[in-house]
Amino acid sequence: MRCSLMLRCQKRADRVGKVSLSQMMLLCGLLFVNPLQMSTCSAEQKLPNILWITIEDWSPDLSCYGTRGIHTPNLDQLAAEGIRYTQAFTTSPVCSTSRSALMTGFHQNYIGAEQHRETNKKPLPHGIRPIPLLLAEAGYFTVLMSNKIDCNFLPDTRQELFMGRDWSERNPDQPFFARISFQETHRPWHRDPERPIDIGDVEVPPCYADTAFVRRDWANGLESMQIVDRRIGQLLQRLDSEGIRDNTLVIFISDHGCCQIRGKQFLYDEGIHIPLIMRWPGKIPPGQVCNDLVSAIDLCATVLDAAHVQAPVPLQGISLFSEKLKEREFIFAARDKMGTTHDAMRAIRSREHKLILNLMPERPWLQFSAYKEMSYPVLAEMNVLYLQGKLTPDQQKFFAPQKPPLELFDLHKDPFELHNLAEDSAYSEVRENLLMHLQEWRENVIRDRGVLEDFRALHVFPETCPAESVDEWTHANVNQYDIEKHGAPGWYPTRSLKDWMRIREQWEPYVFREPDSTMKRPMVTLPYLKLPSSRE
Fold first, then answer.
1. Residue 495 has what DSSP assignment?
2. Could you say which DSSP state residue 379 is in?
3. Helices and strands counted in the chain (H then E)
4. Which candidate, 300, 309, 251, 233, places its Cα nearest to that of 51?
5. To bridge 248 with a disulfide, which of 49, 72, 182, 347 should be the other Cys (CB 3.0-4.6 Å)?
6. How do the domains of the chain map onto residue ranges?
7. Exposure of 16 by Cβ count < 10 A (0-12 exposed, 13-18 middle, 19+ buried)?
8. How far apart (Å, rounded) are the C-alpha atoms in residues 68 and 14?
9. Which of residues 46 and 160 earns the better pLDDT score?
10. What tens digit of pLDDT does each residue of 271-294 get?
11. Domain 46-327: what homologous superfamily?
């Protein structure tokens, strides 16, 4: 069954010139065997409602994607009634940068929104406008049904970007564009008293130590997704009860990959591979599974396509209704700073291979990240095992003090991206081809600014950490160094074994808490660093 969902007859007619109604209907019949599509090709059809559901920090770990242990019947049903994409990827592995791309249809680097937790936001360049504003101009009532916007550009407030908080506020028969985010899959995770998951039922990737501690944390994340699935089920039931299901395009997506130590913030598939499901009764045939390469920014083009809206500046994504989707050879992603953690990476991925260009190879993957050290129990578990020499060779690789400039993976043979083939002569042609296309993308699509000297911060800090931890030293010296400009020091390891053991001990009762427990997440590190006002 073909993956391009629905090539609207009007668009095909526009390309071949004026045609009669009978010719247009014949054209529809040639394109689609299913007669349901033939009655929906008129350009004068009623505009669809659009419900865009986003979850946070989650990979394709749903039962309809084959993940063990988890039970997500509502999303499974949504997929059965529409189309499920197996090869969908975000443009950036953290929320504010990925959401900046999702709000505009452009790569975050192209619009100057690539630095996570940007403190000096600027208006969008090049005549680009956020998707909700374009839809509002086309007559849609636009709503944000949750709180999170988290974009690195101006405008960035609910009042500037959306018209209301619920589609019930719209005028009668007015189409709506509604966005809603569910945050339960973001740390801290919530246990599910209705359907707790046994640690024996989960599958831990080989890049993680297979301990009871890691398994329990992994299962807790899956339980949190089950809670989200029930909330999404209630939202979908509302469409049914209000009689608007059949004229509503439903999109389900995650902003980026899962919040584990090798996922969020990194360009491995664990950080950029995301779930994507769409349903549109009568327009998207049910029960489809699409293996084409999809970028998250394609959704903006898809939404405007469905709403018959022309963007003032051509978007960088491709409508999922377009046959061009099948022609795509690569998807691209980028990572830049994460708060005070400075790093820069670029990635190109085909169906068979992934190449990651590390622009700051002198820094370790696991340099200090205040967010991760205070939020990820598995980070403490893995650091303890690493410093004790108990990790496998594949697990140890991510704890190296430096990164290679290039990483190349054969995704068919090595789906967990553990074996770097960048120096393997058998893959030299693959490497050079991917490097060429990545460089073209950097130069011609995102106009990559690369890494500035201040950002890299070589020779700014002492050579080694003078304190027990990078956390402690950074807090003590925030007024002596410009952390906002240079970021936190890249010293590694970030803590002693003794300190990591202390943190792991604090995490243990929380990780193993009962499903109905009200225990709060422990404060295992110093609080977030409060930076002085920006310097001139």
1. B
2. H
3. 17, 12
4. 251
5. 49
6. 1-45, 46-327
7. exposed
8. 47
9. 160
10. 999 999 999 999 999 999 999 999
11. Alkaline Phosphatase, subunit A (3.40.720.10)
